Write the structure tokens for this entry.
Amino acid sequence: MRVGLTGLGSPGAPMARRIVEGGYPTTLWARRPAALEPFADTAAVTAPSPAALAARSDLVCLCVVGDADVREVVTGDNGVLAGLAPGSIIAVHSTVHPDTCRKLAESAAAQQVAVIDAPVSGGGPAAAEGRLLVMVGGASEAVERSRPVFETYADPIVHLGDVGSGQATKLLNNLLFTANLATAASTLALGQGLGISPDRLGEVISHGTANSFALGRIVSAGGTLDRLAAHAGDLLRKDVGLVAGLADAAGIAPGIVLGAADATLALMDRQR
């Protein structure tokens, strides 16, 4: 299978390198030429546009940031759909609204192109080590054709249902992570008030039944949310807002998890 990838940040760049090292003919496109420079020593080739990338690919993986970026790269002038042949696949690794993927799937179906949503979790280090978590929604045939490529950078790969189900799952994961940040941060603050240093309390809890990934991130950042807020606050606000909107549209009360996530955003000086 010929693979195209765009969005060479984290984790896109290590994903691309793993695909190349897996022996797949790989084409890359980036808005910034500097993003392509690290691949000069690889077998990957570059394309002048998303359409040109698509013309050389059977599977196009998108690792761009948001909904508008995904739509522009796929359906814009010289976008991916302009270059894909019938029978090709688009995999949206970005974390976006499920409806964005569903609408793209409808547009792509007119060209006999399949869209699967495949958001990832784990970041650049996990991609480099081949252990990204990929949450996939879409037709089984397209998912299984794509799976060997995904396996170059991911384990596990979980097929959750129709298009959009991968995105909904990723948003729920991020909602709970955001909520866990507030409970962990407030516990460390309470402990400090009771005379227990945050680093020692974090060390103990990380070996106990209350351990969480969120706690580990806070402890490694010095016991506060400042570092997380600087590089992830806006993304977490986006994702909490998206899943809150999904719950509202479905008429579902999200429960205490949304309140805890909002508390985290407040601690980060963000508001949903």
